[in-house]
């Protein structure tokens, strides 16, 4: 689970591939008023009903084969890419697991033309805000990509469960240390650039800030003397 505040991992659970992630999601201890964003793989009507009872909001995408009936419609600003904003009641085989009305928002991305259908139990936020919230879910994909490309977990050094878990947890620890160091140094650079600079200067003794400061220009006379030394050396 990636926390929107700083995009830092707040919770991690490593399970066998045969175990579905939604089982761990159901066990999360979330504070009242939280907004969680998940993709289609976490579709679980019983969980949606549980979250609503706990006063926890969710934003997800609706499956194309989901069955429902429309209870109410709200006007939308089509100039923003919004197609519809409806209150619906699920009517499928498992609809009784989530008896509360939900909000269904259809949004067409102006940049790509792709249409998205969102489901949420949050009725107060603007429809555009709901679409923007789901868009931020991509940050967790960026997080996984960074971990795989930069912290050496595309291939494992051992095949045992302990070896795999150790390597993954070590990568996550390094990620948090990088983010924390970058925060302490108040550096406005991409995390990948920050990591590369550190890797190139592992044996250099200086402050982290000094690595990102422009070098001091040499005096003109020193520049000439160095050239002369090189020429006659």
3D structure, described in words:
It is a single chain. The protein is an alpha+beta fold. The protein folds into two domains: 2-136, no CATH class; 155-211, no CATH class. 38% of the residues lie in helices and 18% in strands. It is built from eight helices and eight strands, in the order ββαβαβββββαααααα. A six-stranded mixed β-sheet has the order 3-4-8-7-6-5, sandwiched between helices.
Strand content: 15-25%
| Overall number of domains | 2
- SSE pattern, N- to C-terminal: EEHEHEEEEEHHHHHH
Number of helices: 8
What is the average per-residue confidence, as pLDDT, rounded to a whole number?
87
Strand order of the largest sheet: 3-4-8-7-6-5
Q: Using DSSP, what is the number of strands?
A: 8
Structural class: alpha+beta
Q: What is the makeup of the main sheet? A: 6 strands, mixed
Question: Any idea what the radius of gyration is?
Answer: 25 Å
Low-confidence stretches: none
The percent of residues in helical segments reads 25-40%
What separation lies between the terminal Cα atoms? 61 Å
Q: Which word captures the global form? A: globular
What brief labels describe this structure?
233 residues; alpha+beta; six-stranded mixed sheet; two-stranded antiparallel ribbon; 8 helices; 8 strands
SSE topology:
Elements: E1 2-3, E2 8-9, H1 21-26, E3 35-37, H2 45-53, E4 57-61, E5 68-74, E6 82-90, E7 102-108, E8 115-120, H3 127-135, H4 138-150, H5 161-184, H6 191-200, H7 208-211, H8 220-232
Parallel strand pairs: 3-4
Antiparallel strand pairs: 1-2, 4-8, 5-6, 6-7, 7-8
């Amino acid at each position: 689970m990636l926390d929107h505040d700083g995009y830092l991992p707040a919770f991690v659970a490593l399970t066998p591939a045969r175990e579905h992630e939604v089982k761990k999601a159901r066990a999360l201890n979330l504070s009242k008023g939280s907004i969680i964003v998940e993709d289609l793989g976490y579709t679980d009507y019983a969980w949606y009903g549980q979250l609503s009872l706990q006063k926890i909001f969710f934003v997800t995408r609706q499956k194309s084969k989901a069955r429902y009936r429309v209870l109410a419609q709200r006007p939308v600003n089509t100039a923003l890419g919004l197609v519809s904003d409806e209150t619906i009641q699920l009517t499928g085989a498992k609809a009784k697991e989530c008896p509360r009305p939900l909000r269904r928002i259809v949004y067409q991305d102006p940049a790509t033309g792709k249409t998205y259908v969102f489901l949420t139990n949050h009725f107060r936020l603007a429809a555009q805000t709901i679409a923007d919230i789901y868009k931020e879910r991509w940050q967790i994909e960026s997080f996984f990509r960074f971990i795989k490309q930069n912290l050496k977990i595309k291939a494992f050094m051992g095949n045992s469960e302990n070896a795999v878990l150790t390597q993954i947890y070590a990568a996550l620890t390094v990620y948090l240390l990088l983010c924390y160091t970058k925060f302490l140094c108040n550096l406005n650079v991409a995390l990948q650039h920050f990591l590369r600079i550190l890797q190139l200067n592992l044996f250099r003794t200086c402050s982290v800030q000094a690595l990102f400061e422009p070098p001091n220009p040499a005096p003109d006379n020193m520049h000439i003397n160095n050239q002369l030394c090189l020429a006659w050396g």
